[in-house]
Specification:
Elements lengths: L1 E2 L5 H5 L2 E2 L11 H13 L4 E7 L4 E5 L3 E16 L12 E5 L4 E4 L5 E18 L1
Parallel strand pairs: 1-3
Antiparallel strand pairs: 2-3, 3-8, 4-8, 5-6, 5-7, 5-8
Length: 129
């Protein structure tokens, strides 16, 4: 099992960043540790912290893992389609997420993301396969 507050180079290539624990994150290292430990105990493979730039837009994409996440700073809009469906704009719904909100995505679920004027930070528990 891997745990990290850092993310892969893929984040950088998508325009995302990694919060280094400095600055205005709305959480503490102890809070992150509790989130991490609880999700690893539930069988997740890794738990990371992701930070995104202000006004960043990530077009429709998928991931080779499922994810359960908690927004801890900023705001974001997550657009998804019903589970098991291919991307279809007519079926898509968008959620506005702020600190304290959770979201989940199944393995390979198509989705798009947009981040607010101050960007956003969330903790993500990932489970591959």
């Amino acid at each position: 099992m891997q745990t990290s507050r850092a993310d892969s180079a893929a984040a950088a290539s998508q325009g995302g960043g990694v919060h280094n624990g400095a600055g205005p994150a709305a959480s503490t290292p102890a809070d992150f540790a509790r989130f991490r430990d609880a999700h690893l105990a539930q069988g997740f493979d890794e738990v990371i912290e992701r930070a995104w730039l202000a006004n960043q837009v990530v077009t429709v994409h998928t991931h080779p893992f499922s994810v359960k996440a908690l927004v801890v700073d900023g705001e974001m809009w997550l657009t998804t389609v019903p589970a098991g469906e291919q991307w279809n704009e007519a079926m898509a719904t968008t959620r506005h997420l702020v600190p304290g909100d959770e979201f989940e995505l199944t393995l390979a679920a198509p989705h798009a993301e947009r981040y607010g004027a101050s960007g956003a930070t969330y903790w993500a528990a990932r489970k591959r396969g």
